[in-house]
Design brief:
Layout lengths: L9 H7 L11 E5 L2 E4 L4 E4 L2 H4 L8 H11 L12 H13 L4 E5 L2 H20 L5 E5 L8 H7 L2 H4 L9 E4 L4 H7 L4 E6 L2 E2 L5 E2 L2 H13 L3 E5 L13 H5 L5 E4 L10 E5 L1 H4 L15 H14 L2 H25 L2 E7 L2 E6 L7 H10 L2 E2 L1 E2 L4 E4 L7 H20 L1
Helix pairs in contact: 3-12, 4-12, 13-15, 14-15
This protein binds pyridoxal-5'-phosphate.
Main location: cytoplasm
Catalytic activity: N(2)-acetyl-L-ornithine + 2-oxoglutarate = N-acetyl-L-glutamate 5-semialdehyde + L-glutamate
Family: Belongs to the class-III pyridoxal-phosphate-dependent aminotransferase family. ArgD subfamily.
Length: about 400
């Protein structure tokens, strides 16, 4: 039996938490599938998915049982020892992708940190210290560590923390000529999100990713795909690179990989992986048995033809209805994205007001996301039931009606 717990409410956040977040006014306490209940017992439909994390919704029986089974067996041993769930998970990822080796960590930022360090290490070993430049894209997002905000390059995330990591440049997204002009024999890696998630759900063009692949080959640079948001079924393929048919040298994964349990992974080839020899990189928790047991269960469910085909079907359902709502209320001009990563681009009249849409949806009992100030983002569970999609979009339409009539 656990000890009785002191009551807490939203106001406590401002008393005891570092104020780097501004959470909503209600506190979720329980979830099942695509529904969430708050402290007062109010029920909400969840189209936010914990920012593209709760890939199988809340309290999915397969994940609950994987976690509780492992919780009764072994929680942690450190990387001084390996463990069965980590090895099983690595096998699964290697079998399902281009990769031959996996490195586990605890977040997307750490997966990218490992990817960037590996790319620099490979170039250093093969070509010497001059070849260390990383090319990223404008408005990209790769996490919040100092290296990853430097690579992301957005001043709002990277300014004011002292000197940044140097040797990084930024070129406009989806602009092959700009990349061609920037890449050189000093470039060690090009990093691209196959769909820019945080800054507006902007899918790459196939020709752009193909061209980037060719430019990297010509300049002995590695192509890194940041699939932290696009990976693990989100696009209707296990990873977005498979959707595009362009294979990276290094891929980072996190978010959906753990379905809500923290885990990240960097995937790569054997020839590259060997540059991270014993002692060159590490993490205490990375590859933790609890996280890996859950991620194994996530992959077992997600990487099936039924679930992946379902993502494509549900995309159509969302898109058709959202386009209708957007047009009827003059709220947005475009519905874009792939699979169940969908962005509604606000019309001129509503530009900058994604937060208002978020608030209006919440009042109707619906959780959505922003992707910057101009885009409303949907990243629901991949197994969200059709009835929940209909009910959630009814709520969204009521929010749109109220908002545009006010
Ligand atoms: C969320 C995200 C990250 C950062 O992941 P964290 O787990 O928050 O560190 C990195 N890259 C992309 C594309 C993301 O969407």
């Amino acid at each position: 039996m656990s000890a009785p717990q002191a009551p807490v409410q939203r106001a406590d956040f401002d008393q005891v938490m570092v104020p780097n977040y501004a959470p909503a006014a209600f506190i979720p306490v329980r979830g099942a599938g695509s529904r969430v209940w708050d402290q007062s017992g109010r029920e909400l439909i969840d189209f936010a998915g914990g920012i593209a994390v709760n890939v199988l919704g809340h309290a999915h029986p397969a994940l609950v049982s994987a976690l509780t089974e492992q919780a009764n067996k072994l929680w942690h041993v450190s990387n001084v020892f390996t463990n069965e769930p980590a090895l099983r998970l690595a096998h699964k990822l290697v079998d399902a992708t281009f990769a031959e080796r996996a490195f586990f960590c605890n977040s997307g930022a750490e997966a990218n940190e490992a990817a960037f360090k590996l790319a620099r290490r490979v170039a250093h070993d093969r070509f010497g210290p001059e070849k260390h430049e990383i090319i990223a894209t404008v408005n990209s997002f790769h996490g919040r560590t100092l290296f990853t905000v430097s690579v992301g390059g957005q001043p709002k995330y990277s300014d004011g923390f002292g000197p940044k990591i140097t040797g990084i440049s930024h070129v406009p997204y989806n602009d092959l000529e700009a990349l061609k002009a920037q890449i050189s024999d000093k470039t060690c890696a090009v990093v691209i999100e196959p769909i820019q998630g945080e800054s507006g759900v902007v899918p790459a063009d196939v020709a752009y990713l193909q061209g980037a692949r060719e430019l990297c080959n010509q300049h002995n640079a590695l192509l890194i795909f940041d699939e932290v948001q696009t990976g693990v079924g989100r696009t209707g393929e296990l990873f977005a690179y498979q959707h595009y048919g362009v294979t990276p040298d290094i891929l980072s994964s996190a978010k959906s990989l753990g379905g809500g349990f923290p885990i990240g992974a960097m995937l790569t080839t054997e020839a590259l992986a060997k540059h991270l020899a014993v002692g060159t990189h590490g993490t205490t928790y990375g590859g933790n048995p609890l996280a890996c047991a859950v991620a194994n269960a996530v992959l077992d469910v997600v990487n099936t033809p039924e679930v992946l085909a379902g993502v494509k079907a549900k995309h159509q359902k969302f898109k058709a209805r959202l386009e209708q709502i957007g047009e009827k209320y003059g709220l947005f001009t475009q519905v874009r994205g792939v699979g169940l990563l969908i962005g509604c681009v606000l019309s001129d009249a509503w530009k900058g007001k994604a937060k208002d849409v978020f608030n209006a949806a919440e009042k109707e009992g619906l959780m959505v996301l922003q992707a910057g100030p101009d885009v409303v983002r949907f990243a629901p569970s991949l197994v969200v039931e059709d009835a929940d999609i209909d009910e959630g979009l009814d709520r969204f339409e009521r929010a749109a009606a109220t908002l545009t009539q006010a």
